[in-house]
């Protein structure tokens, strides 16, 4: 299936309301520790327990910059 601009339409729908593809969420890792991330749907964040940081998801885009991450409470 194609769109009016003749570009292919993705075959998988984005996950939930985030607009982030589940496959992308599965391959992303913490940029500091390279450890896996946990998706927090309620806060729209990707959580790195190893780094004690939560990376925001804005408009369906994970912001994987440590300076943009929220520190987790101890």
Descriptive notes:
The longest helix has 6 residues, at 22-27. The chain has 74 residues and is mostly beta strands. The chain has one helix at residues 22-27, and strands at 38-40, 45-48, 53-58, 61-62, 70-71. Mean pLDDT is 82; it is low at 7-16. Strands 1, 2, 3, 4 and 5 form a five-stranded antiparallel β-sheet that branches.
Layout of helices and strands:
Elements: H1 22-27, E1 38-40, E2 45-48, E3 53-58, E4 61-62, E5 70-71
Antiparallel strand pairs: 1-2, 2-3, 3-4, 3-5
Shape designation: globular
Number of strand segments: 5
> What is the fold-level CATH name, i.e. the topology?
N-terminal domain of TfIIb
- What is the radius of gyration? 14 Å
Outline of this structure?
This is UPF0434 protein D3273_05080. This protein is mainly β and 74 residues long.
What are the salient characteristics of this protein?
1 helix; mainly beta; 74 residues
